Amino acid sequence: MNHPSPEQPADVVARLRATFRTGRTKPVAWRTDQLRRLRALLTERGDDLAAALHADLGKGRTEAYRTEIDFTVREIDHTLEHLTGWLRPDPAPVPAHLGADATAWTQYDPLGVVLVIAPWNYPVQLLLAPVVGALAAGNAVVAKPSELAPATSAALAALIPAYLDTDAVAVVEGGVPETTALLAERFDHVFYTGNGTVGRIVMRAAAEHLAPVTLELGGKSPVFVDRDTDLGVVADRLARGKFLNAGQTCVAPDYVLTDPETAGRLETALVQAVQSLFGADPSASPEYGRIINERHFDRLESLLGSGRVAVGGTGDRATRYLAPTVLADVDPDSPVMREEIFGPILPIVTVAGADEAIGFINDRDKPLALYVFSESEETRTRIAAETSSGGLGYGLPLAHLTVSDLPFGGVGESGMGSYHGRYSIETFSHRKAVLAKPLH
């Protein structure tokens, strides 16, 4: 029996562009209908997606819903509630020399055909949340799930065509060859989440077509812990933020900066926090995930010698389990401090205080997030004013990206552009200037 060959990337893009040119995706009614259909996919088939996430990453059901499925549903609901207002033309004042009868405004126009390339660590959320914005802005979309999360990729490839308009939304599965072929096509915007190495490849390919690019990258997101804090609360919040998804989170706390005395007390508090969260044997916890593959497991295991193990430090390559680990007495030049960790290892590096911490952060690439635990308003204000990061969190890691009215994105090496809520409309639209002057 002959099976039809999969549609080629050039044909996919041409087909979607033909749909876009008919104007089909532009009415608000079409946009809201697609968003409601995507919401139905998530609510009706959430268990299928949760099972796929468990197969790929060992994610527990609670975490799968909280960080991927329900997260995206909230983004859809927020968008549906505000979309009409966001799209309303924005009047602009007109200079007197154009006459009192002249009017001016800006309006959002859809860009056309958008490519969304997702990573493997949150393979549902980080594919569908950008798709929400692209559809809400009135675009046709090519969605490329990560091949490193194969069960989730297959589930999305099956479900998206069953719920969404297949003439305007397409899923292309595959690895490097398929992604390379996609990037050779002309898109009106390319949205990529991943690492800086591939981000540069994406940007070079997009430059051939002068296509705008959003890069959601990563980096080593620092934490500064001041000596005046409640270390029990700090440790609990750090452990929850760091070890979510086994540390495979782009805005996870990457390393801690604190003074030597506080470091010792924080180490003790972190040991207690890990045990409180995951028990004596985290491998038995249904809510503790696994490393995505053996290559990443080997990379992470090689970093364990960068400091004294305060808790954790064990793993099982066969099951891709790496224990939640805290490293103390870490040298700033050790291997664990040279690259984004992207796993369940939290190094503690000692500094004299806020002054040295600010210098330490500024000597390195601008991070995607920066977290500050301090009761000192002066210290908080100084760090905000004297450092640069994609986002800044006081007292709580990760939470800023759950606020739909805040832009989420990086700066410098941690990315360019932002999305979520209204910022997704801005990303996936052209803000067109319009002036009208009556003829009579």
TrEMBL record:
Matching entries from SUPFAM superfamilies are given as: ALDH-like
Which lineage ranks, top first, belong to the organism behind this chain?
Answer: Bacteria, Bacillati, Actinomycetota, Actinomycetes, Kitasatosporales
Please state the span of the N-terminal signal peptide per the UniProt entry: none
Q: Which domain of life is it from?
A: Bacteria
Q: The Aldehyde dehydrogenase domain covers which part of the protein?
A: 10-434
Record family assignment: Belongs to the aldehyde dehydrogenase family.
Q: Name one Pfam family in it.
A: Aldedh
Q: Does the keyword Oxidoreductase apply?
A: yes
Under which name does UniProt file this protein?
A: Aldehyde dehydrogenase
Q: Locate the active site.
A: E216
